[in-house]
Structure formats: structure tokens, C-alpha cells
């Protein structure tokens, strides 16, 4: 097969080497009965998932030189359902923290939610309207560490209260980060139920209140990291809206976006943007 011209979202050799062992091990556990290894390289499948996440294209609009929907969606769904996407994400997250000279798991997390519009094809049964933000769609909840790395993800109908998201996030934090997390920072949208649930899990939930004298957007110490992570995720156009029929697919998109971010961070790569000096002067 003729080697194709690379896309900006493609994994470099160094980045693929971070992910490849997990994918190879998975492939070894899921051999075809007939011995057929598949028509597409696993690296190209991952590149197709990352391309779609970054560009936001529909499944039918994947470029012809990438694996088609039939193959790409098969692996996306399989890795979503058996947690392989989370295994890769956790592997890279630990490496990023170690590179920053921190322990694998944090002692403090920051919780927040973001409501996004849902696409027309998303089932009504999994969506709602966020009355406070006037957004019809889904609510995406994150728990991140002080580096902005994702520790937990939850996707609910936008009508769900932040309490429901906060409780679900704390449960995931307790499961994913072991016994290390001792404190969680939240904003005023999370009420006493979240703090009470945190106490049951041994996590002190502290509400960071906004200074009433502040005008406009004022970053709050440590809490601003979760806002930064939401901003990074929105650079992946598949996450600007929620296009997924399943909430689990929406969560998987977050994991793949962060996998892409962390792979680049570990290898010192940056994604060119319109703010690039060459683009501005061209």
C-alpha cells in the first residue's frame, strides 16, 4: 500500500510507541478464529479515531486514505466497552505526572461541569436542558489534578443537577486514584450533598467561593486548572457538541482527546494553530 501523506493529528513514531504495547496486547487477546489479522494497521485505526476527534467530521466523512467507519468504529466501540481507552489514558497520565516529578496519583482534585449542545441525532432520553446555562444537551463532568490531567469523567443529561455529577465524579475518583486523594475543590454549584458524600469516601470537599467584588472572569487558584482542561478539550471539534448516541461514547471521546494531548506532551510536540507566527505572517 502506498504510504499516505500524514495529517496533523497523526501519531509520530515516538507517540505511537507509548500506546502500541497496550494495543498489541489487546490484539493478542482478541485473535480471529480464522487467524485473520485484519485489513488495517492498528496505528491507522488510532490515527482515524484521533483525526475524527480533532476535526469533528462525521463517520461517513473519514478521509479515504484512513480506515473506513466499519473498521474504525468497531475498534472505537470495542475499546470503549472493555475499558482499553481508559487503560491507555491511565498509562499516559501516570507518565506525565512522573515526568513532572509527582506521584502517580494526586492528593487533590478539582471538580467542575460543562453543558454542551447535543446534535440532532442524539436520543432525547439521554439529554435535557440546563436551566441555569440555558443549554439543551448533555452535561460533561470532570475531576482533574493540579496539572489539569483527567482523573474522572461523567456524562449526564444537561438537566442533571451538579450534585449528581459531583457524587458520580467522587465515586470515580475514589476508584481510579486509590486512597491518595484527600481533598476536592468545587465551585458554588455543588451543594452539601457532594460534601457529605466526599466525607463518606474520606475526601474533604471544599467550596471555593467567588469574590463578589471581582468583575468578569477571574481565575481562581488551583480551580482554574479544570477550566483550562475544558478549554483544551474544546480544541477537539468532536467535543464542541455532543454527537454521540451513547453517553459512554462521549466519555470515551474525552479519554481519546486527553490521550492525544498527553502523548504530545510526553514527546514535546505542539499542535500548530492559527496563532502560529508563520500562519500570522503568511
Looking at this protein, list some descriptive labels.
6-stranded mixed beta sheet, alpha/beta, 282 residues
Describe this structure in words.
- The protein contains nine helices and six strands, in the order ααααββββαβαβααα.
- With 282 residues, it is of the alpha/beta class.
- Strands 1, 2, 3, 4, 5 and 6 form a six-stranded mixed beta sheet that branches.
- α1 crosses α8 and α4 (84-99) runs parallel beside α8.
- The two termini are 35 Å apart.
Order of helices and strands: HHHHEEEEHEHEHHH
CATH architecture of the domain at 105-244: 2-Layer Sandwich
Q: Which fold name fills CATH's third level, the topology of the domain at 105-244?
A: Nucleotidyltransferase, domain 5
The residue-averaged pLDDT reads: 90
Hey, roughly how much beta strand do the residues contain?
5-15%
Largest sheet: 6 strands, mixed
Q: Regarding CATH, which class of the domain at 105-244? A: Alpha Beta
Low-pLDDT sequence parts: none
Global geometry = globular
Instruction: State the distance separating the first and last CA atoms.
Output: 35 Å
* Number of E-state strands: 6
Helix share bin: 40-55%
The CATH superfamily of the domain at 105-244 turns out to be: Ribonuclease H-like superfamily/Ribonuclease H
Number of helices: 9
Tell me the radius of gyration. Answer: 20 Å
Sheet/helix structural class:
alpha/beta
